């Protein structure tokens, strides 16, 4: 493939018991978390204990900014230009620890 796509999305799915996640591009089964370096960007998914109830006890960090699941599916969306990655965003998350509806 010689052409860069306009965008690419990587889905993250919480297991029913919210103890693990499934990322098709990474693994055939469920995993607990990951640390992914994408060019100059870093995406980290990890479990962490919080004083407030957080969906799955997971935090997703994009370039050291924390986000929390608002539903059982989230997507990492990468937009490209001719030079490579232009932007990375995460859909299905919130900055407020997922405690507000």
Model description:
With 101 residues, this protein is mainly beta. It is built from no helices and 9 strands. Helix content is 0%, strand content 50%. The radius of gyration is 14 Å and the shape is globular.
Give a topology summary.
Layout: E1 7-14, E2 21-22, E3 34-38, E4 41-47, E5 58-62, E6 65-69, E7 73-81, E8 84-91, E9 93-94
Antiparallel strand pairs: 1-2, 1-7, 3-4, 4-5, 5-6, 6-9, 7-8
Question: What characteristics describe this protein?
Answer:
101 residues, four-stranded antiparallel sheet, 9 strands, mainly beta, five-stranded antiparallel sheet, single chain
Alpha carbon gap, first and last residue = 42 Å
| Biggest beta sheet attributes | 5 strands, antiparallel
Which spans of ≥5 residues are poorly predicted at pLDDT below 50? none
Estimate the strand proportion: over 45%
> What count of domains describes the coordinates?
1
Task: Figure out the total of helices.
Answer: 0
In short:
It is built from no helices and nine strands. The chain is mostly beta strands.
């Amino acid at each position: 493939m010689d052409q860069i796509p306009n965008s690419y999305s990587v889905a993250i799915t919480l297991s029913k018991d919210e103890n693990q996640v499934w990322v098709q591009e990474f693994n055939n089964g469920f995993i607990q978390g990951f640390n992914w370096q994408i060019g100059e960007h870093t995406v980290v998914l990890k479990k962490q204990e919080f004083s407030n109830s957080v969906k799955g006890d997971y935090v997703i960090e994009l370039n050291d900014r924390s986000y929390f699941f608002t539903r059982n599916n989230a997507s990492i969306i990468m937009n490209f230009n001719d030079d490579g990655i232009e932007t990375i965003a995460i859909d299905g998350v919130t900055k407020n620890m997922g405690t507000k509806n």
